[in-house]
Amino acid sequence: MSILTKTNELWFFEIRLESIGGMGANLAGKMLAESGVLGLGLNGTNFSSYGSEKKGSPVKSFVRFCQPDVEIRDHSPIEQPDVIGLFHEALHTTVNVLSGLKPGGVVLVNSTRSFEEIRRDLQFPYGTLALIDAMGIAIDERTRVNTSMLGALFRICDFLDPDTMRQVIRQTFEKKYPHLVEPNLRTFERGYQEVRFQTIEALTDAAGMKFERPEPLLGYETQVLGGLIRTQGNSMLKDLSGSRQGYLPELDLASCIHCANCDSVCPDLCFVWESGEDKRGRQQMFLKGIDYQYCKGCLKCVEICPTGSLSSLREEVGYADNHRVAHVFN
Ligand code: SF4
Ligand code: SF4
Questions:
Q1: Measured by CB atoms within 10 angstroms of the end CB, which terminus of the chain is less buried, N or C?
Q2: Are the beta carbons of 118 and 89 closer than 8 angstroms?
Q3: SUPFAM superfamilies from the entry (predicted)?
Q4: From ligand 1's centre to the CA of 20, what distance in Å?
């Protein structure tokens, strides 16, 4: 019997990882493909697509498996995946992450929130949703999100052998970083064990998610003749919150001395200021707060602040009335 119980008309089983630069989805896709090819003798391919932008921009990694007697001649991006792995839940605000998901497909999300909240945000009414606190595990074990996501992905792709991945982890770290072997094995194991599932049966005639190829807003067909872009380079709509990896700065204005050290190191101009008068009536700029839309959680501001007015906090990202709210737990 085939190891791959679910395949498409070309006999492929396809996985798409949706992530942001810096979270290790590229490497996770590579390791996933290797474990199927080297561990099980399947045919498989993997490649990633990412832009030339800085860390924090959207990344996709594609993994395609098939039986050893089937040739893979299709090297195009995966449009109708069986499994989607969402490395950062906030990505859905900027990328159509579920695009093309097959009926009966599985969506794995790195999140601490409830199934209901994630279904509402992703607009994913039926099908199998898998949740894993991959960031929490990585922070506990001092490892990376991609290893805990891999643990959960191995549980979903139950035809893969977790022992192969344990071996890959050992081989990857034991020579140069032997102290990282055990934490990474624990991270993988926790991802495998702690992933939670919820399946809501689809209606019998339910279609998969429609595939959408993102089109540029302005091109030769849509550009207004003689039109003028008045806000070129404008970053007003840019949302960097998806780049944060579990932490964000919290400001205690009561102890702030408005020295602007934080502003001088912040790479994304997140600090908001207003002019006012000091106690002697002299004009001065006063720090008003942090615009979290542009904050990518690098925490350089926390390091530089001389008064401890900025501290780092674990972040849980939630959505209320379409506004992102960051709130603290623990
Ligand atoms: S570095 Fe600290 S004290 Fe200085 S303005 Fe920023 S928050 Fe305030
Ligand atoms: S963590 Fe601080 S320095 Fe880094 S982007 Fe956010 S506000 Fe700016």
A1: N
A2: yes
A3: 4Fe-4S ferredoxins (SSF54862), Pyruvate-ferredoxin oxidoreductase, PFOR, domain III (SSF53323)
A4: 29
Domain spans of the chain, in order of start: 13-200, 241-328
The answer to whether 132 and 112 have CB atoms below 8 angstroms apart is no
Is the shortest distance between the CB of 270 and ligand 1 below 6 Å? no
Per-residue pLDDT of the chain (330 residues; tens, 9 = 90+): 345 556 666 678 999 999 987 788 888 999 999 989 988 899 999 999 876 555 667 889 999 999 888 888 888 899 999 999 999 888 888 788 999 998 888 999 999 999 999 999 999 888 899 999 999 999 899 999 999 999 999 999 988 999 999 998 898 888 889 999 999 999 999 999 999 999 988 766 666 677 777 776 677 777 777 777 676 667 776 777 777 778 899 999 999 999 999 999 999 899 999 999 988 999 999 999 999 988 988 999 999 999 999 999 987 654 333 334 343 333
Q: Hey, what amino acid is at 59?
A: V
Fold assignment, 241-328:
Alpha-Beta Plaits (3.30.70)
C-alpha of residue 77 to centroid of ligand 2, in Å:
34
Closest atom of ligand 1 to CA, residue 271: 6
Which residue has a Cα nearest atom 4 of ligand 2? 298
13-200: CATH architecture: 3-Layer(aba) Sandwich (3.40)
**Among 316, 172, 308, which residue's Cα sits nearest to residue 244?**
316
Q: Which ligand 2 atom minimizes the distance to the CA of 248?
A: 1
Can you give the pTM of this predicted structure?
0.78
